[in-house]
């Protein structure tokens, strides 16, 4: 977030946008190097040796539910890979704006990420974590439409802010649910599989997103992202239909008062 504001600050005093971004990156790099000092003073905890995962336990992991959950992860990752890495390029050339304005919009979106993360406990407490995930992902779809088919810089900036809040709001809940789906012995495997599937899907999405932009238009990847988000959310709903449709405990207690 600070990078965007620094780039805008330097652009006021420097005629070249490229030079202003360079100075902003130098400042951020210096701050990152300073952060190594307190990090180096941390003492690691002793490593606990755990039982190695056997081939049979690995086979037992690939249940129908776990495979569907990984499919859900791949669709969301693929959709994100199509557009997220190209946000800066999209804003600059689709809206024909400057690098400093792009930096401010992306910084504004990062603020949305922070606010979304802080809002997770409150929202999930009231409607439940499963409904929160479905709601945030479905609500992000009209925002993607607003970004992909822009109606002005202000609307796109607001859509970026809200989209970052909603999509990042669900990530801690998804990690928590994934750990509850398996026993203690398989949690490290679940975490590794989720990371691998997500990274592979994002890598494929980046390749496809760049290809679609070069062959068609800058907003073409957004059409596929919306489609993949809908498919992923439907898979999540199928997996946790019982948890989503049942009445949340907090809501029933609250309404009875």
Order of helices and strands: HHHHHHHHHHHHH
DSSP helix fraction? over 70%
Please tally the helical runs, counting DSSP H or I stretches of 4 or more residues. 13
Shape: globular
Overall number of structural domains: 2
The CATH architecture of the largest domain can be given as Up-down Bundle
Q: How confident overall, as mean pLDDT?
A: 84
> Would you give the CATH topology of the largest domain?
Growth Hormone, Chain: A
Helix/strand-derived category reads: mainly alpha
Number of DSSP strand runs: 0
Low-confidence stretches: 251-257
Describe the structure in your own words.
The protein is mainly alpha-helical and 257 residues long. It has two domains: 1-39; 54-252, MFS general substrate transporter like domains (Growth Hormone, Chain: A), CATH 1.20.1250. The protein contains 13 helices and no strands. The chain has helices at residues 2-13, 17-40, 55-61, 64-83, 87-94, 99-127, 129-148, 153-169, 171-180, 187-215, 220-239, 241-245, 249-255. Helix 5 crosses helix 6, helix 6 packs antiparallel against helix 7 (129-148) and helix 6 packs across helix 8. The chain is globular.
């Amino acid at each position: 977030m600070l990078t965007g504001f620094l780039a805008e600050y330097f652009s006021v005093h420097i005629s070249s946008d490229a030079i202003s971004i360079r100075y902003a990156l130098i400042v951020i790099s210096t701050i990152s190097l300073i952060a190594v000092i307190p990090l180096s003073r941390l003492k690691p905890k002793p490593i606990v040796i755990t039982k190695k995962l056997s081939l049979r336990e690995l086979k037992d992991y690939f249940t129908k539910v776990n495979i569907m959950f990984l499919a859900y992860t791949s669709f969301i990752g693929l959709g994100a890979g199509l557009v997220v890495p190209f946000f800066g390029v999209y804003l600059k050339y689709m809206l024909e704006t400057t690098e400093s304005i792009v930096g401010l919009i992306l910084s504004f979106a990062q603020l949305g990420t922070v606010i979304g993360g802080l809002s997770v406990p409150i929202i999930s407490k009231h409607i439940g974590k499963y409904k929160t995930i479905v709601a945030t992902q479905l609500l992000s779809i009209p925002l993607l439409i607003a970004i992909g088919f822009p109606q002005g810089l202000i609307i796109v900036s607001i859509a970026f802010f809200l989209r970052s809040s909603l999509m990042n709001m669900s990530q801690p809940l998804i990690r928590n649910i994934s750990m509850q789906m398996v026993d203690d012995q398989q949690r490290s495997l679940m975490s590794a599989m989720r990371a691998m599937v997500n990274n592979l899907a994002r890598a494929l999405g980046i390749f496809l997103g760049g290809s679609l932009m070069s062959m068609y238009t800058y907003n073409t990847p957004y059409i596929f992202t919306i489609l993949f988000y809908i498919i992923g959310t439907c898979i999540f709903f199928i997996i946790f239909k019982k948890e989503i449709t049942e009445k949340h405990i907090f809501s029933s207690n609250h309404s009875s008062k």
